[in-house]
Amino acid sequence: MKFGLIGYPLTHSFSKKYFDAKFISLGLAGFTYQNFSLNKIGDIIPILAGDLLGLNVTIPYKSAVIDYLDEIDHDAEEIGAVNTLVQIENSKWKGFNTDGTGFKFSLENWIGENLYPEKALILGSGGAAKAIKHALFALGIQPAIVSRGNDGDYSYDNLTPEVIGSNLLIINASPLGMSPQENTFPPIPYEALSQNHWLYDVVYNPTNTLFLARGEQMGAHTKNGLEMLHLQAEQAWVIWKTYGRF
Q: Which of 56, 47, 70, 140 minimizes the C-alpha distance to 98?
């Protein structure tokens, strides 16, 4: 059975390595995983017409890919983004979102529900940000989006130390800091961070981004997105098994 990943660029992704290792550990001969680096989302059409059972979706296509699907899971529709696709019958595809579930479980493992801050900032407004916003609402945490454009609750320009001080959970859901752009980071007032802050970066390559390193300098708790990657991948695997019946 064939699986794969679509996105652009894919140099940062560990998904192929993760699933190749999983197939070997489970003794699944004949199972393969391929990266499809797409310059534009329309390039997915021949891939969907092929013989793959499932696909993962990464930046920047988690929202754009919805227009190419035949069905979408209820939660994914609410989120407005998908990261897992499964072929439900001949060349018909259904989209799911396992990012939100992966983030939720990872946050529970890290902070614990008794310590959840009341409010959170999500840096970025793409597919991962949408999934995380949905997950935070489910956990009873009030999220706010920080965006470079006009689609957020805050822009980086009006992100004051007071706003940072009142939002003790800050999640980088943007690609800033991701390999090969390790020298980039979200432009927030890091001097306003404290030991009461929790900084979560969905980026996992590199393992310690400048966003996290600057938080650590101010005493903040920090965590990267590797566990989230593993958790969302396992949720995708469950979906593929359900439809593939292997």
A: 56
Model confidence band, residue 76 (pLDDT cutoffs 50, 70, 90): very high
Neighbouring residues of 234: CB distance < 8 A, sequence distance ≥ 6? none
Task: Specify the amino acid at residue 87.
Answer: Q
* 60 upstream amide cis, omega within 30 of 0: yes
- DSSP letters, 138-202, are HTT-EEEEEESSSSSSEEGGG--HHHHHH--EEEE-SSTT-TT-TT------GGG--TT-EEEES
| Confidence grade of residue 46 (pLDDT, cut at 50, 70, 90) | very high
Beta carbons within 8 Å of 108's beta carbon, 6+ residues apart: 139
87-112: per-residue pLDDT in tens? 998 889 999 999 999 999 999 999 98
Q: Which residues are catalytic?
A: 62
